[in-house]
Q: What sequence folds into this?
């Protein structure tokens, strides 16, 4: 027991030490970063949960360290027609749904969300692919939203349902039932999502951005409210599988866990998740759900998606992706 605990303490010190390495914008790209992220897959859930208090905060950075460009990744321009309709109106019709195991289900507009208390934080985003960016996020603490809705006692997880379809399963229109057909396309890692969008657009069987928006070196929201032509609703070609993520109540009530609407002092660009995205700062990039349309409080993750708590988790990634 004592030995076991000492092992955990040692591992914990290692993780914390690495996390505190100074000014380390390329952290995830270094060998040490990769090793830590890998160790994290095994040890994080235990070490961080047991030895760090739930309110432990991720490192915050001075404004001078903000990355000049916040690299967009995964979905960068959701093809879904419902999303495009919202984007075309600059999200004036957007409503965040808060439901599931809550006392009072909510539908909150962006101005409702902006009227709630705000938190601003400059943090580093680490993607499993090995790159990092530092950005300033402003948004409403998830805790404030959940306080407003009121949790039912059985609520244990917050599930974030996103607007973007990543795969279309052959459905009724494809002549096969749910789960029977192969996907039209199936990304194998987060960056593959972006690449697949570009390929699909080139093949012209989906609609979507004609080129990767990876090239521009500014996050300019004004001309980034959803470009590309209207896409067929994924339902028209099969069963859409949309991005989703989930966190437990420890992370949900962490003060740094926010639903962000601003990046670097401006409304979130579409490529970075407009109009609202999750920031859960002690976890890896794929937990940072973009295009969040709905927060559903649940008792178990078993019935959501394929049951592992997130789109990438359903495809083998760790649910607790601690850094
Ligand atoms: N809805 C949605 N959220 C998502 C993704 C996605 O494809 N769709 N990709 C994830 C991954 S792997 C990363 S690294 C970050 C990228 O956020 P960014 O585009 O702001 O850099 O978003 C995460 N959240
Ligand atoms: Mo990522």
A:
């Amino acid at each position: 027991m004592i030995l076991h605990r000492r092992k955990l303490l040692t591992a914990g010190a290692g993780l914390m030490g690495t996390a505190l390495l100074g000014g380390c914008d390329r952290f995830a790209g270094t060998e040490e970063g990769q090793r830590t992220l890998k160790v994290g897959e095994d040890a994080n859930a235990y070490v961080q949960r047991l030895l760090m208090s739930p309110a432990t905060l991720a490192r915050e950075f001075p404004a001078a360290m903000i990355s000049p460009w916040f690299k967009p990744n995964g979905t960068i321009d959701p093809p879904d027609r419902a999303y495009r309709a919202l984007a075309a109106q600059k999200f004036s019709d957007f409503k965040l749904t808060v439901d599931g195991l809550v006392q009072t289900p909510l539908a909150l507009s962006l101005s409702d969300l902006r009227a709630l208390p705000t938190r601003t934080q400059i943090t580093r985003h680490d993607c499993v692919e090995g790159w990092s960016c530092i950005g300033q996020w402003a948004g409403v603490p998830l805790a404030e939203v959940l306080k407003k809705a009121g949790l039912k006692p059985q609520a244990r997880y917050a599930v974030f349902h996103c607007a973007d379809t990543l795969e279309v399963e052959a459905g009724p229109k494809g002549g096969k039932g749910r789960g029977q057909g192969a996907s039209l396309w199936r990304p194998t890692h987060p960056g593959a999502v972006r690449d697949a969008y570009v390929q699909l657009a080139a093949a012209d069987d989906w609609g979507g951005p004609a080129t990767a928006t990876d090239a521009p070196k500014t996050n300019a929201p004004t001309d980034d409210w959803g470009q590309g032509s209207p896409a067929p609703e994924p339902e028209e070609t099969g069963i859409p599988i949309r991005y989703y993520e989930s966190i437990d109540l420890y992370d949900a009530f962490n003060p740094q866990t926010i639903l962000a609407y601003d990046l670097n002092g401006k409304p979130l660009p579409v490529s970075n998740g407009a109009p609202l995205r999750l920031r859960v700062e002690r976890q890896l990039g794929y937990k940072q759900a973009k295009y969040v349309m709905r927060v559903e409080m649940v008792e178990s993750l078993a019935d959501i998606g394929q049951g592992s708590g997130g789109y990438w988790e359903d495809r083998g990634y760790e649910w607790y992706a601690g850094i």
Observations:
- Helices lie at 2-19, 31-51, 81-88, 110-115, 142-149, 190-203, 249-252.
